[in-house]
Amino acid sequence: MRQVTPISPALLSQFEQSYASRPYLAVMSNAISRTDLNDASFVPAAAAKLRMDFSVVVPTTGITNQKKSGRCWMFSVLNALREQVIQKCHLEDFAFSATYLAFYDKLEKCNLFYENILHFAGQKLDDRETWTLLGNPLPDGGQWDMVASLIRKYGVVPEWVMPENVHSTGTAQYMPILSRKLRKDALELRSLAQAGKETAARRTEMLQEDYNALCILYGQPPKTFDFAYTDKDKKYHCEENLTPQSFFEKYVDYDFSAYVPVISSPIHQINRTYCQPFMGDVVEENMFWLNLSQEEMEDLTVRQMQAGEPVCFSCDCRPDRDRARGYWDPDCFEYGQVLGGLDLDMDKVERLTSRDSTMNHCMMFCGVNLDENGRPNRWKIENSWGDAAGQKGYFIGSEKWFKTYVYQTVIRKDLLSPAQRALLDQEPLPMELWDPLA
């Protein structure tokens, strides 16, 4: 029989006496009773070092807003790409349609889910791969590779061609409904596959149902559109009958194959490439990462901005943040001290392996401040939470925060050293579906 350790009356009495012997704990309880924990833990002296001044700045046009959706990964890439359209067409502002890409992202993820369910159809429902897939059949989140796959296949359109609506900007209401539908489909496909029956026709019917539902929620994506705009000189332009693919080819000078997602993970083999065959959206493409040291990833990130180009990145955005003031910095918050002297320190390996930290948000670096030794001490971040968050939509990340919580940056391959480029020729190692960085 399993031995358990209950909280006995004697043990509870010991806790009570210990708490009473430290009267400052009750004072702290009173002090924060009307104060948010973030505000009570805030360290003004640390925040004072995070000034919105940077020695290296990549100009950006303005702030976008993903609202109540998990599309940060789309916005981070589209925010970088839109600068090219603004410059090429001499515009005051421009935005791509995230609704257009979100539609195809969801459709492709439905297809990938069916693909994966059939691949693991021989498993029991509680085997880890199948259990993981069923836990989140239609994720809202993603990474740079997935945007690249979608744009290569479907192109892009201006925001006004397929504008935002209540469903594209607020996914929490309907995502559980579509996920339930996919789980029901999974049980049926598994049953057919296990009985040795054909699954292709039924899978196509399921995808048609998914397509119909997405059209109702998002609207049906356009096949062609007219690109009409007035430039800064008040000159009117109009190009008719563009496709999303031809619009991207003509107005966006961006070669996705010229970039590589670089991760810095101490729980994976350094100087290795990795892939994830069961994650993403477009089934015919694969997720890919190059794992380098923290120092190498950081150096490449700085050099890309020095070359005049912003850097899309992925991080853990939850800890040590002040959303209202626009700070990300572990030294700005003393949660442990406020809560009675808790020791909350964990190194990067401990945070990742204990599931305390994962990649959960994508943004764009558009500036960095270098000290007298040429080393970064703070980072300028363009977020997609609207201009009411942070400092008119921009945030500042400390160097400590970068080292602690930034896990991936997207780097131009021509900035890699010859030795780093040679690593790209390796056969990538597959990450597990439940990997904290996948």
Concise description?
The protein is α+β, with helices and mostly antiparallel strands. The chain is built from 16 helices and 14 strands. The strands form two sheets. Strands 1, 4, 5, 6, 7, 8, 9, 10, 11, 12, 13 and 14 form a twelve-stranded mixed beta sheet that branches. The protein has a two-stranded antiparallel ribbon with strand order 2-3.
Architecture overview:
This protein has a single domain (56-430), classed as Alpha-Beta Complex (Cathepsin B, Chain A), CATH 3.90.70. The two termini are 38 Å apart. It has 16 helices and 14 strands. The model has no long low-confidence stretch (mean pLDDT 97). The strands form two sheets. Strands 1, 4, 5, 6, 7, 8, 9, 10, 11, 12, 13 and 14 form a twelve-stranded mixed β-sheet that branches. The chain has a two-stranded antiparallel ribbon with strand order 2-3. The protein is an alpha+beta fold and 438 residues long.
Largest sheet composition: 12 strands, mixed
Percentage of residues in helical conformation: 25-40%
Beta strand % = 15-25%
Number of domains: 1
Per DSSP, the total helix count is 16
CATH topology, anyone? Answer: Cathepsin B, Chain A
CATH class designation: Alpha Beta
Give me the secondary-structure category: alpha+beta
CATH architecture: Alpha-Beta Complex
Characteristic terms for this protein:
single chain; 438 residues; alpha+beta; Cathepsin B, Chain A; 12-stranded mixed β-sheet; two-stranded antiparallel sheet; 16 helices; 14 strands; 39% helix; 16% strand; globular
